[in-house]
Protein 1
Amino acid sequence: MSVIKCLYYVLIVLFLNSLNTTNAENITIVLNNTLTWGNKELYSDFVNVTANSTLQVDCINKNTNVSYIIFQVHSHLYNITLYNTTNVQGSSVYGTNVGLYSSVLPAIDTFFIWNQNEIDLILYISIHGYGLNDPIPGGCNMEFPVPISPYLRTQYNKDYILVDAPSPKDKMDVKCNSIDEVVLVFYKMNLPERSFDADVYFDGIMKMMTIDNIQENGEFIPDNGLHNRRMLSAYPGVGSIYVAVAISVANSSAYSVYAPTYTYACSPIEDGDCDVYDDALSQIILASLLFLGLFVCYYGHRFFKTEMFLIGLTSGGIVTYVIISIMADLDRPALLGASILSGICFGAIWLLFWWFYGIPLLAVFLSTLNVGFLFSAIIYNGLPGGLIALQSDVNFWSLFIFIMLTTSLLLVSMTLLSNILCCAILGAYAVVYSMDYYMGSSVRYIIINSVRRATVPKFNRAVLSPPFEWKDSLMCLLWVGLAMSGFLLQHFQNYGRPPFPPPPRSVRPGVPRSFYGTTVLGSGRQPRVVSRHPRSTVASERSPLLA
Ligand SMILES: *[C@@H]1O[C@H](CO)[C@@H](O)[C@H](O)[C@H]1NC(C)=O
Ligand SMILES: *[C@@H]1O[C@H](CO)[C@@H](O)[C@H](O)[C@H]1NC(C)=O
Ligand SMILES: *[C@@H]1O[C@H](CO)[C@@H](O)[C@H](O)[C@H]1NC(C)=O
Ligand SMILES: *[C@@H]1O[C@H](CO)[C@@H](O)[C@H](O)[C@H]1NC(C)=O
Ligand SMILES: *[C@@H]1O[C@H](CO)[C@@H](O)[C@H](O)[C@H]1NC(C)=O
Ligand SMILES: *[C@@H]1O[C@H](CO)[C@@H](O)[C@H](O)[C@H]1NC(C)=O
Ligand SMILES: *[C@@H]1O[C@H](CO)[C@@H](O)[C@H](O)[C@H]1NC(C)=O
Ligand SMILES: *[C@@H]1O[C@H](CO)[C@@H](O)[C@H](O)[C@H]1NC(C)=O
């Protein structure tokens, strides 16, 4: 019985397979749209291509103004093959966003779309027609396998994305021996963060097809001196669509658009939802950031020794992380482990420093330096890119450190308030950093981009353009809200207390203990002497957190 059943299934599977393999469909498209300057799309539609089958597309041109067409096919996640007439090396393209060129005369090529995947795909076909004067996208290609390749190629690693366009060909430039006849302009559009839906993707592709739509939805990517290549900071899990427009120098109303391309800077098929911090150590760090951040934001100044330790730990950890990444090639858990160990040492040293010397100004200086670093990082993220002067590391880091020090010195000139402010800002940022990861927004890249600039070779040419969507504005609001409430709460908590607790074991000679209770720059409050409230201060300082 079961043998018969088995045979039956085998037969059905064989039958279905044979159906699939012979399933070659034909469609014929009549190109009779009128073109405008801003919209040169002759045809666009979705087609279904079943698994392991080929779709044949014939085009009939009715528009006499068109001299060549660009035939594009866009697929979501799965690669397809597009070829003309015969599938030979040099006339077929493999990828998710592919295109081919065909002259209208004597006749438009027949195109074949081969879905070699084991699932049915919905594909978006778009045909654009251009006139005699328009440059041919990819017409002077030297790197891509197809002689005329009007499509782009993206590559990514964990830090950056590269978008490449083959050189276009101008009408005047018959032999491709000049590179200045056509300029390439790149645009980018972000998809909603952590959204891997096909609908969202196709909607984005459609918004980057014609020059009218590109100018409306796209964001210009400045040229950082890489010729036909653009380098962008990677935000894994945030889809982005790229397109290049070739504009003739001699006749600026002659242009053509490459087939747009996209990347999530991660592979949703393999990685699921593109969790980049999937190792256990990162998860533990993220979770502890949330709680330590809340603690520092609301109680950092009150538990001053704990704050000293945590600030030392953070600063030491970041510095070690940067130094090790520059010098050695470790994987993330090892790098994080080493940074944390070194951070703990730094924290302990900083704590001991306060313990024995107890100079408020110096103790607070490290916190303000951290805020200065954050401030410089925010400015770096807001820069438009394409600033040639800042591509030099010397210029960049001089400016970065200058802004950092200025912020820090401005803050440190009001010691008590600045410590409370730093606790609130840094603690709130730690909370936001960890929430940011779970929400899939991009506020954590403020720090990550600066660390990349320090550690990733050639990152000086990357354009940051961080995504700013509703989740990011929510995170920024949360940051501001937490920081303000933390500042007010700590200010209120500290009202009537000595501005700084006495260091437990001061070895500085000749400093009366009451110094810490009375004089602090700019605090116009009624001075109170520690000895009057010995119990309360000591009790709050004997926090069990570090003991
Ligand atoms: C499609 O066209 C080709 C050649 O013109 C022909 O061999 C094939 O049978 C056609 N397929 C279908 C499903 O019409
Ligand atoms: C284009 O061709 C289609 C099919 O032949 C026809 O239905 C349509 O009316 C034509 N459109 C124009 C603008 O000629
Ligand atoms: C071709 O271009 C001319 C002017 O440039 C325009 O008047 C005409 O409508 C165009 N023809 C088509 C089919 O778009
Ligand atoms: C493609 O298939 C989907 C269902 O899988 C269907 O909803 C859609 O109408 C089809 N589209 C075309 C163009 O056949
Ligand atoms: C796909 O089709 C080819 C022949 O066209 C066949 O050799 C191959 O086994 C098929 N693959 C699947 C997964 O059906
Ligand atoms: C598509 O092709 C690219 C390179 O050709 C490859 O890296 C990628 O893994 C392929 N994707 C799938 C889903 O097969
Ligand atoms: C097919 O595409 C290739 C590469 O673009 C091109 O060289 C060839 O002329 C095209 N046409 C035919 C009929 O092969
Ligand atoms: C410039 O290009 C436009 C669009 O292709 C064309 O209509 C126009 O005639 C061209 N001008 C010159 C001077 O070639």
Protein 2
Amino acid sequence: MQNQPPVPAGRSGHSKLLRCIAVVLLTLIVLVGLAVLIIWLSVRPRRLVYTVEDGSIRNFNLNNNHLNASFDFVIRSYNPNSKVSVFYDSIEVSTLYEDKTVAYKVVDPFFQSHRNVTRLELKLAAQYVALVGSTARDLRLEKSTGDIELTVLLKAKIRFKLGTWKSKHRTLRVWCSPVLVHLSGYKKFERTYCDPEL
Ligand SMILES: *[C@@H]1O[C@H](CO)[C@@H](O)[C@H](O)[C@H]1NC(C)=O
Ligand SMILES: *[C@@H]1O[C@H](CO)[C@@H](O)[C@H](O)[C@H]1NC(C)=O
């Protein structure tokens, strides 16, 4: 017959202590969760809103599958939050035709306070951009109909600001597509709503 290991003397004391620690930890977790919930409810971060308000093309020239053109866009950026502001630390805007970037521009950084609307007036130039044959053919065809379907992509490094707290950098991608640009002045530009991805 083997000897039973002796029951440790302080066992019941230990488990009491453990239970106590568990209760304290659980309470802490619940309190932190409540605090986060309250902060979230009072701040209630809302999605940033972007629209293309105007778009036009000037100096369009497509020769030997090379494109020269000036694209003008007005992008409206709206921060609907009542407490959260946004730092736009770097912004690049590009114009794509059939997934091919034809024009590109770096925009000056800016700070957007809460409930602010900022209009970005952008002039992007395509300078002797080489297109593959099928893309050039499609573009020539669309040009002849008077409407060209483009995509505007805004890529930004942003930080959020709430009171004195600032978030880490995050990459924001804003897709505006299709942006239908009319070559003749007869048709009015229709506002395009963009899809922001954070
Ligand atoms: C938004 O912020 C910009 C830059 O600070 C400012 O020029 C503009 O007037 C503001 N717009 C509104 C609607 O407050
Ligand atoms: C397009 O732009 C390039 C460089 O800006 C220029 O050398 C070329 O002549 C232009 N081509 C046409 C067809 O306008």
